[in-house]
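My current task is to audit a protein record that another person submitted. Please read both lines and tell me whether the tokens look consistent with the sequence. Do not assume that whoever made the record got everything right. I have pasted the whole thing underneath without changing anything:

===
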Amino acid sequence: MNMKKIEINTKYSSSTVYCGTDAFDERAPLLKDRQLYIITDGNVFAFYRYTMWEVFGDFVPIHILPAGETAKTFRYVIEIIRDMIKSGIGRDGCVLAIGGGVVGDIAGLVASIYMRGIHFVQMPTSLLAMVDSSVGGKTAIDLDGVKNVVGTFYPAEEVIIDPDFLLTIPYREIRCGLGEIVKYGALDENIYNFLYENFDKIAKPDKAFIDNIIPLCVEHKASVVREDEFERTGLRKSLNMGHTTGHAFELTYARKTHGEFVLIGMYYELYIATIKGVCKGEYSNKIAALINQVVKHIPAYEDIEKAVEKAKHDKKNTEGLVSIIVPTEVGKFTEMKLEFNEYKRLIVQCRDWIRGDK
């Protein structure tokens, strides 16, 4: 796979994505002469510490976060900033995020507020980060049980996506990324067609599948960001498909990956769209089949009434209504806005339907 270069230029920012199996070898050494501050997590550091030292030097400051969503707090943001001050990072410094979505979220937030903003480069190491979170500039941490409620828009000036990083991660993390890929399949006709042409590979993707799907997803997200960088027109909101219900479940149950919860949320929201006649039955079944390739059994949570209360606080909601993004036909979507009690009733109804209640 040759390295692909994707430019994302908007009125307010410019970002270049380098995507391909040679991306790290070609682009990473060009960063070593900059004043770097690396942010990573314990899992990534365990695998790649010698590579980091070899490419960027023995004395480059590296902040190692605990792996997982629990790191997305003010505690670690302040801890990093204090260490950056101690390390003498100046306005010409560059935060380099080497890790998955959590690392990118925190590193981007830090880069955006340290000295009112310094250089920022992303080097995603998870499939989810490669196809989604490293592109487009959203940064965030969680607060008081509300996911991604504190954050900024701060695109990395360069994103280096090398699929070879995926050789060291467990299949559970691949499945996490597949959640976002299926989401893109419900938004983009080319990705939808690719997924159905490679339907049997979705559950256990090979290298060719991964190498081809990553740039397709990046291209779609880039096209959205160019048109709606700050989520003002509603186009970028489409990227939140499955996330309203998925985030509520993720915050409540926390035993699956983010991507799996996105798909579970998509399934429940697809049920609402189908019941309401927004998504026709045949296409609804096609999207459900893609979801089931990754999540074989959709959970029917016993205490789902409590979990969906968290959807009240989703940042996409407006006018006191719960916002969900749902597919309508191939390559098309719409936003549905529901009174909370109706949304809750339909989610419970879907749960009962899944478990076969009459």
Q: What stands out?
A: The first strand starts at residue 4 and ends at 9. The mean pLDDT is 95. The chain has two domains: 4-169, 172-201+229-354.
